[in-house]
TrEMBL record, chain A:
This is FeS-binding protein. Keywords: Membrane, Transmembrane, Transmembrane helix. The chain crosses the membrane at residues 7-27, 47-70, 82-99, 114-134. The keyword Membrane applies. It comes from the Bacteria.
TrEMBL record, chain B:
This is Tat (Twin-arginine translocation) pathway signal sequence. GO terms for cellular component: periplasmic space. Transmembrane segments: none annotated. Heterodimer of a large and a small subunit. Residues 50-80, 125-157, 158-187 form the 4Fe-4S ferredoxin-type domain. Gene3D superfamilies: 3.30.70.20. Pfam families: Fer4_11 (PF13247). The keyword Iron applies. Keywords: 4Fe-4S, Iron, Iron-sulfur, Metal-binding, Repeat.
Length: 144, 332
């Protein structure tokens, strides 16, 4: 199962990045949603639901890997630590966003804006860190 | 035609003007400073949301509310920089209402309230029903929840607002609104300072239920100006009770209580809304009156999955660790 989850990591993160970007109405504007099979990217509610479902899958995977890491206590790499911190911040802001979307829950205008902007910021930073890790051969999270 | 009854007394108001001022006046002093310190002001506002009830059997379609809305909110209308940048790609259309500010037969960036008229027959009686239409201020608004930029949000008072200062005009709020209420004005807003041709397209505008008046303990302009007392405003629980009593008294119908999971605007009519919906003109800037399911229902369900997923992941991980330990022990 660990191997399957490892193979799923990049596709799930890619799906989260795409549906995250799709929260902004850009795919329809830039004809991406016109590509056969990608029309759903131009449908705000569908993109939102897929982002939620992807987040649930991701949370299962992260909880799985965290439990295994805690059991073995293997040392983290520097790039792994950086990406884990960014991922944690992304998850925290994501969950706050989900709470905000529940009925009868709403935050102040400033908080609402900060949650949205920081969630977007941490996603961008994580993307940059992931590309940097891949380009420089620092892919591993733990020291084998 | 059924004749409208006129009631100008305030004694039968579920919340009198005096008590309205008493309840909301204290909060108003701090809330009116909300542009400076919004978070602090929010915490001092009353806990229960405000709801408006419209007795559309009373509306004579005089248009006083439409004019008052426009006058009262004129200071919030955007200043348009011309020429408006051409959009890229060209499929993105500029929406410019700055030279059509007088249009009042539909919702526009400069007209947040308009009156629909429906001529219908019900129980062998002919009715001419006038329906003031504006944002319904949903209790769980998809426009605020799906805005990726934090520009649209709901406040403690139940008011759903769009911040014209940070809105980029992507119009997602209009797309996800079941009634497509918010309207776009291009050539204004933050996008002009970012990537005016490539991202954004203006600013979205809609009824903000005169939040500034509410903050000062006043009522929205469309309510105070109405010569027929069509609208009433008060705490949600009291307004729901009032609307139900009103509907029962006229053997009438309610719209808004269940729509989109509930709104803070309720219409009470002596005629079924199915008939009104068929009779009104619909289209761009002209919202329907059809039943609306809760558009945020799936998100509410998926929240359970988001809570369960990490718990399931930990449980599965623990089983894996125990299984590995057992295998290791057996191998030894």
């Amino acid at each position: 199962m660990t191997n399957i989850l490892r193979k799923l990591w990049v596709p799930v993160m890619t799906l989260m990045a795409i549906t995250g970007m799709g929260q902004m109405p850009i795919f329809k504007r830039y004809y991406i949603a016109d590509i056969p099979g990608l029309a759903w990217l131009g449908q705000p509610f569908t993109v939102h639901w897929v982002h939620y479902i992807g987040a649930a899958v991701l949370m299962f995977m992260i909880a799985w890997f965290t439990t295994l890491w805690l059991a073995k206590q293997r040392k983290l790499t520097a790039s792994g630590k950086l990406r884990i911190i960014l991922l944690a911040l992304l998850i925290i802001t994501g969950y706050v966003r989900v709470i905000k979307n529940l009925p009868d829950v709403h935050f102040s205008p400033t908080s609402t804006m900060l949650i949205d902007w920081t969630h977007l910021l941490f996603a961008i930073l994580l993307g940059v860190a992931a590309i940097w890790s891949a380009q420089t051969g620092r892919k591993d999270y733990v020291i084998e | 035609m059924k004749k409208s009854s006129i009631n100008k007394t305030s004694s039968n108001l579920p919340i009198s003007r005096r008590s309205f001022l008493k309840v909301f006046g204290a909060a108003g002093a701090t809330a009116c400073a909300s542009t400076v310190r919004p978070a602090e002001a929010q915490t001092k506002q009353p806990k229960e949301e405000l709801m408006t009830v419209l007795d559309i059997s009373k509306c004579i379609g005089c248009g006083e509310c439409v004019a008052a809305c426009k006058d009262s909110n004129a200071h919030k209308f955007p200043t348009v920089s011309k020429p408006i940048p051409k959009m890229f790609p060209p499929r993105v259309k500029v929406e410019d209402w700055s030279d059509k500010k007088d249009v009042d037969d539909r919702l526009t960036p400069y007209n947040w309230l308009y009156i629909q008229t429906a001529e219908v027959e019900h129980n062998n009686e002919e009715y001419e029903i006038n329906i003031p239409r504006r944002c319904l201020h949903c209790t769980n608004p998809p426009c605020a929840n799906l805005c990726p930029w934090g520009a649209a949000r709901k406040e403690d008072s139940g008011i759903v607002r769009i911040s014209e200062d940070i809105c980029l005009g992507g119009a997602k709020c209009r797309t996800v609104c079941p009634w497509h209420i918010p309207q776009r004005q291009s050539g204004a807003g933050l996008y002009l300072n970012l990537l005016p041709r490539f991202a954004g397209n203006g600013t979205m505008l809609k009824c903000d239920r005169c939040y500034d008046k509410i903050a000062q303990g006043e009522q929205p302009a469309c309510i105070t100006v109405c010569p027929e007392n069509v609208q009433r405003i008060g705490s949600r629980s009291k307004m729901i009770a009032y609307a139900k009593d009103l509907a029962a008294s006229m053997n009438g119908f309610i719209y808004g209580l269940e729509e989109n999971g509930g709104t803070n605007t309720i219409y009470v009519s002596p005629v079924p809304f199915e008939k009104l919906n068929k009779a009104i003109e619909k289209g761009k800037g002209k919202p329907h009156l059809a039943p609306v399911e809760n558009s945020m229902a799936k998100e509410e369900t998926l929240t359970s999955a988001l809570i369960a997923a990490p718990i399931a992941g930990v449980a599965a991980g623990v089983l894996k660790v125990l299984s590995d330990a057992r295998k290791e022990k057996n191998n030894d």
